Every structure is written in structure tokens, then in C-alpha cells.
Amino acid sequence: MSDDIENLVHVSGFPPGTGKDEILRFLSNFGEIQNIELQSESGRTSTSALVYFKTASGLENAIDQSGKKFHNKTITIEVWRKRRRLEDEEEKEDNSANLQQKQKSRLKQELKDVPVSLPPSGDLEPLRSIRLTYVPTCIDIDQFNNNIIFGMKSCGFGIIDIETGKLQIIKGRENKASSDPGHFKPILCCTTCRLTTSSQTYHITGSEDRTIRVWDARSQQEALVLTGHRGSVTGLVCAGGSNQGNQIVDEEEEGEINTQNAVEVSQNILLSCSEDKTLKTWDLKASKYLDTSYGHTSSANAIDSLKPTRCVTSGDDLSIRNWDIWGGTQTVHTGHTSSIDCVKLLDTNRFIAGSQDGAISIWTTNKRTPRLLIPDAHAHTVTITRPQIVDNIESKSDGKESKPIQSLPSEISASQYFTSVIHPQKSETQQQQIQSQPNTHSVVQIPVKQERQAEWVSSIAVIPFTRLFASGSCDGQIQLWNVQRDNASEVANIGHVNITGFVNGMTFRKIEGDERTILIAAVGQEHRLGRWKRIKEARNSINIYRLDPSASHSINQAQSNDSLHTDSN
């Protein structure tokens, strides 16, 4: 019999030795039978058979009689298991196809266009530039109070009124032993949440001191301290409430945008990630810890969320993880060759990440590898030089240019070169005397070649459910990008903003009904996570830019109105 024939049932439970004719008589009451094949084998305690009915009605009647007695034996009649397996596989294929179709339909969710106007040179003057004494490490926007919140390496954080530029600094404490409120190590992340049960808004900060501190947005008094992480707290977000864009997905109608205030929908639940490799869930209303999720094999660096039940994190383990917070499951996405320092959700099915390998990646939730990888997104040209020794005497005596005598060996310093190469036989005292005399040789840097150098992508900012996103690094530019296709397979660079320093954090302010598109950047002389490189000419500052096409008049006004530029220590 063929495995794919129809109207085939498996009948079992007949006493051993039951003949084909007896089984035929028993089943013929249900419908006309075309064929029957016994499956009795030695050692079995019952006899079974495969029965082929000519019509589907016969099969259905037989199935309905399953459980009927035959010589006090219960007879089981069911669709043949091989056929049933085929049906199950077909059902799985159908379910898979439906799921893929559903995912495709989500990807077809239209992303809105955000018009942007930038000077080709990138020399866009900020509407406001608030100068800071210490390096800002992170930034977020308080949509409820129209404020900017940012953290600093000084262990304190600041609040800026977007419209007036008024700055307020909340200082950290001097050391761990101090009884004063606040962090005693640099702040690495911050966010804003509003409880569902009240109109109370909180600013929340996470620090290298492994604590999360919750602050009353009105009084700026410390309201709660959350402890439990065993490493620096590197990322914070309210579940479902990326503050950027002031939009959130309604969980009951997935894919539909709920335009009420973002964090207000959820938002008693706080999510945090840490260098201890974990994702933790907290209940702000009850002021307690809820759960810990494990998955990253190294530090988790960033987190974002647009749905109350889901979030994404990125880490040093070269992975991005898409979490079902309450289901306890995660999907692992890989594609970078170095630590992934930032990740932002473009919508519930698309997200963008930036890595220390210099690349920006665009992802969809139904694919474990990037839809698009933009290598060297913040690359710039650098000149490679090599030190050489030149003769100063020759250039003075005959007026000719100094000529290189010998390239400086890379394994020794210039002072070692004079004593060990030029005067190798001299005693230590004689060498010191030689070095104290007027130097007849100089070390100069000789250009060798120019090459493209990719800098780390240190920050990403998006306006959720739109095509616009921005990326920052330390190459002197903030890049603006536009997603060209809804499946995120094509992206266009639409301009840049020149800025000197490390762009440690960015956020957009875009409110429905407001034509203004505001980009806010936290810029510092050092990277937010370390001090291995310092750009001395950079200013620690919070810079506010207006990007929409109607901003030209506002920009000119800002240039001519000194009151819009606020410097503060």
C-alpha cells in the first residue's frame, strides 16, 4: 500500500489469531472496503490491520465506532499513523507559511518618512550647546516634562529644559561610605518612566556602582535604590517604553500604534542589563525585583523595548538577543566581529545596532543574520607616520634641508637611540654629558601612507516607526540615515552633522503634530566606558540640533541670538 493513499485506517485490538474475514465482517457495516492487510506478528497480544475504505464516508463511520467491543476486546480505529504524520507535517507547513506571511505583513508595515534638511558641508549650528565640566555618558528625553536627562562620569546627572536651556545638576556622592543620596561611580545609562497608577514621573539612572537609582522628576529626590546586579549597570528602559518618538505598540493589537504617552501604558516594569551578563526585571510600583534572564556570555551593553512583553539587548559576546520577557525565551542574532555597544528598535520587527568593528547593522526579528551591514560607517582618512633621525648640523651649515640619517628602530626610544646607536661605546656618564649638550640630531615624523580607519559606533538614535536614524562615533561626524525599503535591505546616507568628540549618546524629539525634528547629542572628550583615548579639542556638552526643512529661519535666529547658547559648569 502506498503511504499517501486516502481513506486508510489502522484498526487494532483484535484478539490474537483473528482472521481477515472476521475483521472484514466487523468493519463492513461502516462502509464498502476495498482492501485489508493484516499486521499480526509473533509475540503480539493482539491483531491489527490496515483497512482501505472506498469512500471517505466509510472511513468517517469507522472512526466514529472506535472503542466498540469485539469478543470483549476494545477495538481502536484511527487514521493510519503514517498518513496522520503526513497530515501533521502539512499542518506544520501551513502554520509555518502562515507565520511567514504574518511576519512579511508586519515587515510591510509602512515606516513614515521624516523630512530632513542639512547643509552639504555638515556645518549645522546647534540651537543650543550646553557646556559641561564632566564627560556626559548617556542621554534620554523626558517627554512628560519636556526635559533632557543625561548622566556623567562625575557620578551625577543633569536635567535640561528643552525650551529654555535651563540646566540643573544633581551631584553624586563622594564615596561609598557617604550617607548622601546618589551614585559614587560614573553613571552609564538613564531613562524616564511614568507609573500607570499615577501621574508621577521618575528619572532612573544606572551606574558602575552596580545600583539603579529612581528619582522623583519633580523634586529630584532619590525615591528608590534597586540592587542586585553584580556588575556595572549598562542599560535601562521601561518595558514597552522607548521614550523616543512617544509611541508604543498596543499588545492586544500587535502592530498597531498606540499614540498615547509611551511609558504611561506599561509602565510599572523596568528592564536593566549589566556587565554581569544578565537582564533583570523590576516592578517600580511595588519597588521590588521580579526576575533575572540569562543568555549573554559576556557583558550586556545596551537595551531597548517597544512592547511590554519584549526587548532587545546587545553585548560583548557579538550577539543581539531578542527576548520574550515573560515567556523566558530568546532569539540570538549574530553578524558582527566585535562588541556591539548600542541597539535601537526601529519598530517591533526591525532594529539597528552599532559595533566596535565600525559597522552598523539592520535586522528583522525573523532573520538571525543582518538584513544589511554597513561597514566602516564612521571611517575617516588617517596619515601613518614613522619617526626618523635627521642631522641638524648639516641643515645649518650648508642651508640644505635636513636629511634622514636612519629610521628610528620601532623597539627603542629616541634617547635610547642616541646612547645605544650613535654613541654605543660611551660610558653612562659620557652618554649623559652627550645628551645634555646641544642636540645635533632631531627625530621627525615622516609620512608613510594614508589609510581609512574605522571608528567604533558608540551610539544610535531612532524615531520609532519612521525611516530616520542617526549614528555617532568619534570621527567628527554624526551620520543621518534613511531606511529605503521596508524590509530594511537598503539604507541611504542623507547627510551628516560635524561635531568634535565622542558621541556617547543621542536621542530624537519628535512629537505627533509638531513639525520640529530635534536631535540631541551628548558629546565628550572621552568614551563613556573608559579613558584610553582623549580628544582634547572636544567640548563636554549637550548639543541640540533642529533637522527639519523649516528650521533654516530658526537656525539663523539661533546664530544671531546669544541667549540661545548656554555655557554652564
Automatic annotation (TrEMBL):
Source species of the chain: Streblomastix strix
Name of protein: Putative nucleic acid binding protein
Subcellular location: Nucleus
Primary localization: nucleus
Occurrences of domain RRM (ranges): 7-82
Cross-referenced Gene3D superfamilies: 3.30.70.330, YVTN repeat-like/Quinoprotein amine dehydrogenase
Entries under InterPro entries matching the protein: Nucleotide-bd_a/b_plait_sf (IPR012677), RBD_domain_sf (IPR035979), RRM_dom (IPR000504), Rrp9-like (IPR039241), WD40/YVTN_repeat-like_dom_sf (IPR015943), WD40_PAC1 (IPR020472), WD40_repeat_dom_sf (IPR036322), WD40_rpt (IPR001680)
Xref: PROSITE patterns: RRM (PS50102), WD_REPEATS_2 (PS50082)
Source lineage: Eukaryota, Metamonada, Preaxostyla, Oxymonadida, Streblomastigidae
Keywords attached to this entry: Nucleus, Repeat, RNA-binding, WD repeat
WD repeat copies, ranges: 204-225, 268-292, 333-363, 450-491
Keyword RNA-binding in annotation: yes
GO CC terms of this entry: small-subunit processome
GO molecular function, one term: U3 snoRNA binding
Pfam hit, one: RRM_1
Region feature (Disordered): 86-120
Record-linked SUPFAM superfamilies: RNA-binding domain, RBD, WD40 repeat-like
Record flagged with keyword Repeat: yes
